[in-house]
Each structure stands twice: as C-alpha cells, then as structure tokens.
Amino acid sequence: MSENVLAQLAALKTTPIADLKQKWRQLFETDPPQFNRRYLENRLAYRIQELAYGGLKPETIERLDAIADELEGKPSKRRNLITQRRPVIGTRLIREWQGVEHSVTVREADFEYQGRPYKSLSSIARLITGTRWNGWIFFGLKNMKGQK
User: Fold this and answer.
1) For the chain, is the Cβ count within 10 Å smaller at the N or the C terminus?
2) Can you tell me the distance from the alpha carbon of 98 to that of 108, in angstroms, rounded to the nearest whole number?
3) 85 three-state secondary structure
4) Are 24 and 15 in contact (CB under 8 A)?
5) Which pTM does this prediction carry?
6) Is residue 36 part of a domain?
7) Rounded CA gap, 73 and 91, in Å?
8) Where in the sequence is the domain holding 45, given as residue range(s)?
9) Residue 86 DSSP label
10) Are 78 and 110 in the same domain?
11) Residue 56 and residue 49: Cα distance in Å, rounded?
12) pLDDT in tens, 32-60
C-alpha cells in the first residue's frame, strides 16, 4: 500500500468521532449511520482503499448479484449454465479410484451413489476420496487445462 493510504488508515484509530462522521460525509456523500465507532472506522478504511486501488472485480460483483437474485427468488444465470452443462438424466458416471470402480447415476434433481441421493458431485467425490474435490473435475466432466 502507498504510504498516504497507510497513514490515512492509521489516523482513523485516533480521529475524534465528529471528524470520522465528517470524513464519512466526504467519502460517501451521505450522512453517517448511527453505528458505533468501530463500524465507522472499518467502513471508512474500506472506502479509502477502494478509492485508492479500485473496487471489487467485475466477476465478484456479478457473483454477488447472482447470489442476491437467488436469495430473492429470481432465476440465476449461473444455475441455468449448470443445468445446461449437466449430463443427461440416467447417465452413469464411472470413476476408478485406488483400484475401486465407483458409479454415479445422474437423476433429475440430484445424483445417486450406492443407492443414496446426493445433491452434488463434489459431495460424492469427497466421500470417495476423503478430501475436497470439485466433483465435475473428479468425474472428468470439466477439464481445467488451458482454461483461465
């Protein structure tokens, strides 16, 4: 971080609350909320860095918007993409792991493994391997080589 930004961030801790509220008005162009000092310091620190170095990446904003839409009950673009790339219902995914062949059946809303339903391939891959895996990669449905 540049020294100017660091100095501003350090100064927030010793700045009187009235001055913090004035700083809020300058940076946000609104009246400060009626929260405690710590909240004001944290939000001001974020805003100072945001103005100095830029805000969130466009991908992050898009992801947050998708999460908000999902919480509000709106259809998600991401959910549609997952549905489009999902294998046809009834497809059997077979993967050998440590000498044992594992078979998963694609169902309408979930996956079946050893007679039990699972919501995601990742949960099945975790059960098989004992570690976290991306289920799409584990079962060979997504190739990460050459992708950014």
Assistant:
1) C
2) 29
3) helix
4) no
5) 0.45
6) yes
7) 29
8) 3-53
9) S
10) no
11) 11
12) 988 889 999 999 999 999 999 888 888 88
DSSP 54: -
Taking only the tens place, the pLDDT of each residue in 68-120 is 887 887 765 555 545 556 788 899 999 999 999 999 999 988 899 999 999 99
Residue 100 belongs to a domain: yes
Do residues 12 and 20 lie in contact, with contact meaning Cβ atoms separated by under 8 Å? Answer: yes
Return the pLDDT at 31.
92
Amino acid of residue 78: R
Q: Into how many domains does the chain fold?
A: 3
In a domain, 81, yes or no: yes
Tokens of 78: 């991401």
Q: 5 pLDDT exceeds 50?
A: yes
Q: Torsion-angle region of residue 78: left (phi > 0), alpha (psi -120 to 50) or beta? A: alpha
100: enclosing H helix or E strand? strand 100-106
Q: Indicate if the alpha-carbon torsion angle 78, 79, 81, 87 is positive or negative.
A: positive
**Residue 71 region, left (φ>0) first, then alpha (ψ -120 to 50), else beta?**
alpha
- What's the pLDDT score for residue 148? 45
